[in-house]
Amino acid sequence: MSFTGKATYSGGTTLPEIADDVSDLIGLISPFETPLLDAIGDARNFARSTRHEWLEDRLNPNSSAINNGAGYSASDTVFTVDDGSVFRIGDLIRPNGSDEVMQATASTMTTVTVTRGYGGTTAAALADNQELTVIGHAALEGEDAAAAVAQIRVRKENFTQIFTETVSISGSLDAVTLHGVDREFDYQTINRLRELMRQLEQSVICGVKATSNPEGSASVRRTMGGLLSYISGANAVVDDAGGAALTEDILNATIRAAWEKGGRPNAIVCNGFQKRKISGFVSSGTQFVPGETRLRSLIDVYESDFGVQRVILSRWVPADKLLILDLDKVQVMPLAGRSFSTKPLATTGDFRKAQVIGEYTLEVHNASDGGHAVIANLATS
């Protein structure tokens, strides 16, 4: 026989007599992680101006390339080169890819004159763009000191960018008891800060400075340049994959290119698709051990012939690109006194209002001459 007394459902589908049962946990699915900022860490100092500058230097070059379309025969002794000032009388010179050693006997700004086959080595023909590397300078005993040669330090700049979001709630909402949240104002402030940190990481990777009035004006919003905009130029290591899938050979070739220019990359930053490609480098060698219940199919650290690189997974790297960085040469710094903070705003009614605000810039050393690298135009499917 069915129950005829009063039950929980007696009041109807709205259950008016029963207290609400709402979980105190709020589900949040929107991504807000900032793994690159976490890896870079806290800035070692602050920016002191909205235009932040730093200096870069380099040693004197020790090589220059042949600049003659027809190249030179094994008997030629005067070569046109990209930069003849690299060479001094007495330098021992080795053409890349050759066993020959030469000795410089004269040089101008665009040429070098040599003795071929120095020390019994065999002279060989030279091709256009073949690099001539100085092994070392040989001075004569008792000769005068050579003229001093030094490089001019280069000044680089970036600009601070203001990141801001607003929090505003009514006085009533600030007073009522809520499910899953102690105070609505604090909850909204935390979410706005998460959004700003997400914006900061994306700007560090993909930000671009304004082409005109980058310092800002009444109508121009000041923006900071990101890593991709700085790792560019004729001397930068930017490899175009041409739509090919990422392979270990492609990755190693780019790391090597940065290493050859003097870079010491210690991090690889990529999105999920390229991260799976990297983890796939070892999938063919995966072995199953009897009794083991956990399968690992990932690479967190990549040890190449040119150093150890931590692999950082970031949602915010463009799908077709991969960054190879020296994190010791990167800083994300706030303008002094302008780290992210909450600033209460004056109210003109029955509400509470605040601005979450911060001002930051990126400092990245040697981005345009091999300190870092980018692989672009990778396959994404």
Summarize the structure in words.
It is a single chain. With 381 residues, this protein is α+β, with helices and mostly antiparallel strands. The chain has two domains: 35-56 and 155-282 and 297-376, Alpha-Beta Complex (phage-related protein like fold), CATH 3.90.1690; 63-137, Beta Barrel (Elongation Factor Tu (Ef-tu), domain 3). It is built from six helices and 18 strands. It has helices spanning 35-40, 171-175, 184-206, 227-230, 248-260, 272-279; strands at 51-56, 63-65, 78-80, 91-95, 102-107, 111-115, 131-137, 154-159, 161-170, 237-240, 267-270, 301-304, 307-313, 322-325, 330-334, 341-344, 351-364, 373-376. The protein is elongated, with a radius of gyration of 31 Å. It starts with 34 loop residues before the first helix and ends in a 5-residue tail after the last strand. The mean pLDDT is 90.
